[in-house]
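Q: Hi! First time doing this. I have a protein sequence and I read that you can turn it into a structure. Is that right? Here it is:
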Amino acid sequence: MRLFLTTLIFLIFSISSNAQFWITSVTSFPFPANDCDIVSIVVDGNMSSSNCTHTSSYLISGNTITIDINIICGGIGLPVITPYNETIILGTIPSNNYVLIVNQSSAGTLLETNTSSINIGNCCASNANISLSVSSNCLGEPTSFIDLGTLADSLVWTDNGVVFNPNPSALGWIYIFNSSGVHNVILTAIDSTGCSDTNNLVVTVNDHPEILMSSVPATCATCQNGEAFVNVVSGQMPYQVLWSLGGTLNPLTGLNPGKYVATLTDGNLCSVSDSVLVGNSVSINEYKSHDFLIYPNPSSGNIFLNLFNNEHNTINIKVFNLSGELIENRFFSGESNTTYEIDLDLSKGIYIVKVNNFTEKMVIQ
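A: Yes, that's right. Below is the predicted 3D structure, encoded as structure tokens:
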């Protein structure tokens, strides 16, 4: 009996000496919270006996939120500290900086008051939501940004940090990038309060392939033994060649003298077109509409040059590499419609030939 009374007195003393710990914590969820969120307050506390229960209620008045925790004890129980956990759902509340007051009472007596604050922010009305019809295209082709529900009072577009302005379209926006490479596009949607949302997309813009056309002349005006060839300077493999008269061979053989057009499409599905003249090594004067003719092209370095409608007594032939460096510079005296045999000691590659004021591409192989 003495032991029971000693324990009871000790428990009562412990409870009275720790009254400031009836409420142990007050937290809010979510954190941080906005005016479109469902806000909950979680209260952890203690009750004075094992036979106690708790109820809660709340009141929002102005910028004050008051939560009352009422402890009810009945029947016979042990006078021991009993923890509790209570979640109070406030729902959506207007944006404001609130004073949060939690009161714990028992039998009409206030046990403890906990005061804190809770800030409710504004939900952003902006929404940046776009997609790409294709994530990769060719230089000079339009890129389409499809609108998936963008909401804003103003929009800011940046390409690798530089502001640009696409044109609106029925499905969204269209823009033609002026440089190849990887473009990191960020759309920022901003509402009237300054709240913003972003959407990030990556666009790859590929260069068009570069080609040089060359030919081997037919041996006569009606001979079908000329050739046309597409020389690929740059581009993503694999390559596909399509000639305007049909066929995909490269070189294209069995040709009459004349002009032939080819389109090369590379592995990025980027295309380029160019034309080449297949000459007539016997009746070369049939092609006087052209400035000059070099054949064969490609060649091993030994070429024939025929210049039409030359207004000068001197013929100047210059050969440049693709870097623009002058490799050969020769002068000849003669008249128009004369064939010159020239031996160029050049390594294999693609060159630009300038005869007086006219230029042509030449391949040494």
